[in-house]
Design a protein that fits this description.
This protein has about 180 residues and is of the alpha+beta class. Helices cover about 35% and strands about 15% of the residues.
Length: about 180
Amino acid sequence: MTAVNPKVRMRGASRPADKPYDELDRQIIAMLQQDGRRPNTEIAQQLGVTETTVRKRIGRLVSENLIKVVAVPSPEVVGMTMSAIVGITVDMNAIHDVAAALEALPQTRYVGYSTGPYDLLIEVFFRSHEELLGLLSKKLARIPGIIKTDTSMILKVTKFAYEWEIPEESSESLDNEAAR
């Protein structure tokens, strides 16, 4: 059984307006990251709070877009066993249109605006080298505004996780600490 953290605030305590998460929220999120289908009653029991508290907390976190609860299919199950990262240089006047076109591709798992040598980075999943070649030569090559692509095949994934810990300190306090 998980020990209850004495810092966890109990019913009736208020959360500071400038902090979207408190310690209880963090603990609930950590437990859901381990098992997104974990029953609220189990979470409540392990944290020493009521099921109602857990249900309301999760409801608030979802409704305020502080967490998302989703099912993520495994690409391998449908044969998409290969992946690549594609760095894309674009005409900056068309960057938003290019990003929207990339988002619409079924092979695209991730689209991000970036700094550095590429304007956009995408992650794509595919079934074969032939499918990747078609994506690059037929689909990406036809998107107006793309100037250049640079593709890196992923040979082996050693970590693929959606879990990450919510930082306890704001970026402002981290900046102050770094300045010392």
